[in-house]
Specification:
By secondary structure, the protein is an alpha/beta fold. The chain has three domains: 2-155, no CATH class; 178-391, Mur-like, catalytic domain (UDP-N-acetylmuramoyl-L-alanine:D-glutamate ligase, 3-Layer(aba) Sandwich), CATH 3.40.1190; 400-525, Mur ligase, C-terminal domain (Protein-Tyrosine Phosphatase, Chain A, Alpha-Beta Complex), CATH 3.90.190. It contains 21 helices and 15 strands. It has a nine-stranded mixed β-sheet, with helices on both faces. The chain has a six-stranded mixed β-sheet with strand order 10-11-15-12-13-14, with helices on one face. A hairpin with a 2-residue loop joins strand 7 and strand 8 (339-346). The longest helix has 27 residues, at 2-28.
């Protein structure tokens, strides 16, 4: 019995390592919402099934003996696994670390109970002749750790539902008391950028609260209301994300927005939505949830918005660049490494108004137009709007230009998409110097993933002097696109770790150098 207890120590340390990793993946997959975690397991058999503890059955050769050999063999096996895990984790680049939230703590408690249920009977009814079977069962149980975490998450659903409804009621009560008009922002791409730009423009005249970071689910918005919102705000800008139809409508029932902003309808989360038509209908749930006294601002250059028949009697206002038959359009656009200038024609106003911004990229002009038109409709003067646009700060990891050492970094690392990625390489092409792109490509595009990444590769060929691709399998479509565009093969580099890119760039650069970081996949997509 003593040897058995001692042998459990390295095993339990390994359990902590493995379950932490599984919980991390569960959290990055939104706690298995819409079966995302389960689908991740199915798509990543190497990560789930080919961990080193797959060799536990070989232990049987050592374990089916007499004396202390089974305990020693079991201990050595898990000591080696703990060492290997520790070395691997110290070398890995963790892009989005596990956040120990209250929900994660509850999950850990459930996992602890599950392991107590498994181990306690072995200790209570310990029998020396069955010790080998104890070891094999414990090894199998932990080998299936990703599924054990899924089981614990399923067991916690009633508790999580109770917690959610408690805080939801609290948030609804607070929103009724404060009675702050809500501006909902959604779309396939550019939600966070648009949200922050609108905030910076409106903040010139009003006190505006914006949902922090990418808190764009009902859980995140409830957290924002209960912990951050106060009575001094004039408007609340709420970003609204979704993975399937009905989710934005659910968020709208919680937030009751008066105003709505729709950015661009594209193919983000095509796998979970099922079709582009579902994405279109899902995003318009925001517009169709607005009261008749409210209004929505839509993009007149997006055919998926122009061609949609809105089932609501609220007012609709349009922005555009190509389409001039809108309520606000931009023209005379000039983009340089220091920022952008453009003129705006507002419907009903004769003169053109000139705006200057630090932001780069055509898609940011759309976001700025949205903020300008929204502010105008909410009573802001042209001078205040011009001041607001000039004060808009570059959004972190979204075409953010910064100098690091002797390199200019165009940081567009957050959540790349087909439209944004093409515009990002156009911005790179405007720079005068050596132009590098570092990218792992785009994800969650369903059956169009290969096609869109191949197009991306062909676009890279037009603007980048060097292409550094992260992950051989992930970036094969980009490589194929580069080859089809007859890009110089000697200027393509394929790496497995983005940290190796910068030493390589320092070796290759010959003059002033611009590096576009396009997309930074979360850990669950690492090769």
């Amino acid at each position: 019995m003593t040897m058995f207890l001692i042998s459990l120590l390295p095993y339990l340390i390994f359990v902590l390592f493995k379950l932490k990793k599984a919980i991390h993946m569960l959290q990055q997959n939104y706690y298995d919402e819409s079966e995302r975690y389960f689908l991740w397991i199915l798509k990543n058999p190497k990560k789930v099934w080919l961990e080193l503890d797959i060799w536990f059955p070989i232990l049987a050769i050592l374990l089916f003996t007499n004396g202390s050999i089974p305990a020693i063999g079991f201990s050595i096996f898990y000591i080696l696994l703990v060492c290997e895990y520790h070395v691997r984790r110290t070398q890995e680049q963790v892009k989005k670390p596990l956040v120990i939230t209250a929900r994660v703590k509850r999950l850990m408690i459930t996992l602890f109970i599950l392991y107590v249920i498994v181990i306690a009977p072995m200790l209570i009814f310990y029998c020396e002749q069955y010790v080998v079977f104890y070891y094999l069962f414990l090894a199998l149980f932990t080998y299936l750790g990703y599924f054990v975490v899924k089981l614990a998450n399923f067991m916690n659903k009633p508790v999580e539902a109770y917690v959610y409804h408690y805080y939801k009621k609290k948030a609804i009560k607070k929103m009724k008391t404060l009675n702050i008009p809500v501006i909902g922002v959604t779309g396939s791409y550019g939600k966070t950028s648009s949200k922050n730009i609108i905030h910076d423009i409106l903040n010139v005249k009003y006190n505006v609260f914006v949902s922090p970071k990418n808190f764009n689910t009902p859980y995140g918005l409830i957290n924002s209301i209960n912990n951050y919102l106060d009575k001094f705000e004039d408007y609340f800008i709420a970003e609204m994300g979704a993975f399937k139809r009905g989710e934005i409508a659910t968020t709208c029932r919680l937030m009751k927005p008066k105003y709505g902003v729709l950015t661009i309808i594209g193919e983000a989360h095509l796998e979970s939505f099922g079709s582009r038509e579902n994405i279109q209908k899902g995003k318009f749930e925001l517009v169709e949830s607005l009261p008749s006294s409210g209004f929505a601002i839509l993009n007149g250059d997006d055919p998926y918005q122009v061609n949609y028949q809105v089932k609501n009697d609220c007012s609709l206002y349009w922005i555009g660049i190509e389409n001039k038959k809108v309520d606000a359009y931009a023209c005379n656009i000039q983009i340089s490494s220091s920022g952008s200038t453009f003129d705006v024609q507002l419907k009903g106003e004769k003169p053109l108004y000139t705006f200057q911004t630090k932001l780069l990229g055509k898609h940011n002009i759309y976001n700025l137009l949205t903020g300008i038109l929204l502010g105008y409709k909410l009573g802001m003067s042209i001078k205040d709007l011009q001041r607001g646009v000039a004060h808009v700060q570059p959004i972190e990891h979204r075409l953010e230009l910064k100098k690091v050492g002797n390199l200019y970094i165009i940081d567009d690392a957050y959540n790349s998409n087909p439209i944004g990625s093409l515009r990002a390489v156009e911005v790179l092409g405007m720079m005068d110097g050596d132009r590098f792109i570092v990218t792992p490509g785009m994800i969650e595009l369903g059956e169009k993933q290969y096609e869109e990444n191949k197009k991306f590769g062909m676009e890279i060929a037009k603007y980048a002097d060097y292409a550094i691709l992260i992950g051989k399998e992930q970036t094969k479509p980009i490589y194929d696109g580069l080859m089809e565009a007859k890009y110089d093969k000697d200027k393509i580099y394929i790496l497995n770790d983005v940290r190796d890119a910068f030493p390589l760039i320092q070796k290759l650069r010959k003059r002033e150098t611009y590096v576009l970081l396009e997309n930074d996949l979360p850990d669950l997509f690492n090769e």
